[in-house]
Predict the structure.
Amino acid sequence: MTYQHKVQYYETDMMKITHHSNYVRWMEEMRVYFLEQIGAPMDMLESMGIVSPVIEVSCEYKGMTHFGDVVSITACLAEFNGVKMQVYYAMHDQNGALCCLAKSRHCFMKDGKIINMKKKYPEIYEKFLPHIGEDLEESQK
Amino acid sequence: MTYQHKVQYYETDMMKITHHSNYVRWMEEMRVYFLEQIGAPMDMLESMGIVSPVIEVSCEYKGMTHFGDVVSITACLAEFNGVKMQVYYAMHDQNGALCCLAKSRHCFMKDGKIINMKKKYPEIYEKFLPHIGEDLEESQK
Amino acid sequence: MTYQHKVQYYETDMMKITHHSNYVRWMEEMRVYFLEQIGAPMDMLESMGIVSPVIEVSCEYKGMTHFGDVVSITACLAEFNGVKMQVYYAMHDQNGALCCLAKSRHCFMKDGKIINMKKKYPEIYEKFLPHIGEDLEESQK
Amino acid sequence: MTYQHKVQYYETDMMKITHHSNYVRWMEEMRVYFLEQIGAPMDMLESMGIVSPVIEVSCEYKGMTHFGDVVSITACLAEFNGVKMQVYYAMHDQNGALCCLAKSRHCFMKDGKIINMKKKYPEIYEKFLPHIGEDLEESQK
């Protein structure tokens, strides 16, 4: 699944490139989009009292991006057993140059406790199911 | 009352100066500090269910600031009748150069409704009292 | 001219609304879009060594916005004499509710000095010309 | 080496915790502080035309932090051969609870090219020398 983000002026820093912390935010934009696309939008989850905190995040910066660049973010659901979820991301600029490879790990919580989506909300888990184990290379096609 | 903020790298933009949106955030840092100093810290207010949304904000940028600059923010409680609050700010860099003059207006809300702090929480309102009508020039001394 | 911005999760704060500093950033997104639309994109200006710092900014918050809201930002070029530029903004959520009225003032600089676009770059100034004096109400239609 | 950051209101999100992207920014604050402490401040490096882009960043979130928390960030220079630099970080809240373990990798560039600090600027490299290979556990003491 691919999502696009245009680099804003306020996302640049004095090195005249995108500040590296913004890629972590774009990963979140991508997840929000992904959840929307599969029919489990984050605001629906939150209205059910379910939040999805980030447990781990990592980015390898492969190239710089600049103000006005349109970054295509492709993501795949590398792993999700109902409890822990892992997402992989690849970001390319409008010229097809790879700028960032990233990963994030998440859980789902309700009332301050980690929950098993597969057991507690099988009807939501099912929406993730067809996407689990996706390959990033496949996802980019 | 004066509060200091050191300009961070991630607060700069490709013009190699502090991005103008950050001054609005520093105004908030100043208010948090002010509330702390007068004995009505924001986390105490929030634990009582009281929030203080921003109704209006304005900034006149008088000079640029750069990475590493230490900005002194002086603020005064220009007005507070228990319902609406107005705060004035003057920001200077470490060389004493004026960089920003700003204002903000706020109210206090509980359960989604505007409240009169003077009537509902006189003991908190009293903590603001000695500071109401302060002069920014005085405050800077 | 109207531009849309979807409220991101990272733009919210613990009041569960959009943090007020983000509206200042969206005003910038709008200006970038405006310059692009009239054929004077900011990266073109910057490649000519022209920057456009913000001199003044003000926001009246008329309503809250939340995660996932799609905010429509309408802007008009209230004033531009070649030296100082004033832009007005009106922001509405997807239900048509007014959430913010804002203004910003700018100048254009080259090599650290304020320039008169009308005299120095009449061919660029002409691109602004048809939009000067626009009415925000008109612009919103 | 330890540096402190107080969590700001604007750093929180609607989950009522610090947004995870801010930890990446605090890592940068720590590096700026580290470079200052060892006598190679980033603004000095930048005035020499040297920038230090982030090549890789990773965070493991071990606990949440909230508005007003004072986060102590301890860092150590795990590795630096003059070309590539690796920094480790441990963050604890004011109660001593571990909230984040992080790593970042950097290089140094001049005129768009990666440089070897050891060869090109041995007098700066020497300032890093006593800190290379530091142990995070040691650093926290």
In short: The longest strand of chain C covers residues 70-80. DSSP finds five helices and eight strands in chain C. Residues 2-131 of chain C form a domain with the Thiol Ester Dehydrase; Chain A fold (CATH 3.10.129.10).
